[in-house]
Amino acid sequence: MTDPVDLAKVPGVIPYVDNHTGPRRLLTLEIPHLGHTVRAYAPIASIDGRQYIVSWGSVTFEIPADRNVHVSAHLHTNSGYEHTITPFASMVLVPHPASIRLKAQFVPTHGPEGTLVPVI
Predict the structure, then answer these.
(1) How far apart are CA 114 and CA 59, in angstroms?
(2) What is the pTM assigned to this prediction?
């Protein structure tokens, strides 16, 4: 029998930094750019309230598997326009042992609220 993999030591995985001694799993979050968003916005992912400035595309986090975890993504801007919106998407993941992949979907012309959808 082999020991479980220490997910925080897997290359490219952002470790869970809050106090948690229970089982963990991987969350891959995809934040695709919408063409013009590359110049005007910076993607930010948040896990249980901790914000991470990330790159466009996929980023992988280590998260608790035995309790709820709040996940959000938003597009930050400093463009300074009076009516500039900051798109966001948010959800609470329920306890589950399996890894999960989510994709942020934003349509800035339809308002700030986006969605996080599972990728199968």
Answers:
(1) 18
(2) 0.86
Burial class of residue 89, CB neighbours in 10 A (0-12, 13-18, 19+): buried
Rounded to whole angstroms, how far apart are CA atoms 109 and 114? 11
DSSP the chain: -PPPP-GGGSTTEEPP-SS--S-EEEEEEEE---STHHHH-EEEEEETTEEEE--SEEEEEEEESSS-EEEEEEEE-----TT----EEEEEEPP-SS-EEEEEE--GGG-SB-EEEE--
Render each residue's pLDDT in the chain as its tens digit; 120 residues: 444 567 767 788 999 999 999 999 999 999 998 777 677 788 999 999 999 999 999 999 999 999 999 999 998 887 666 566 788 999 999 999 999 999 999 876 777 888 999 998
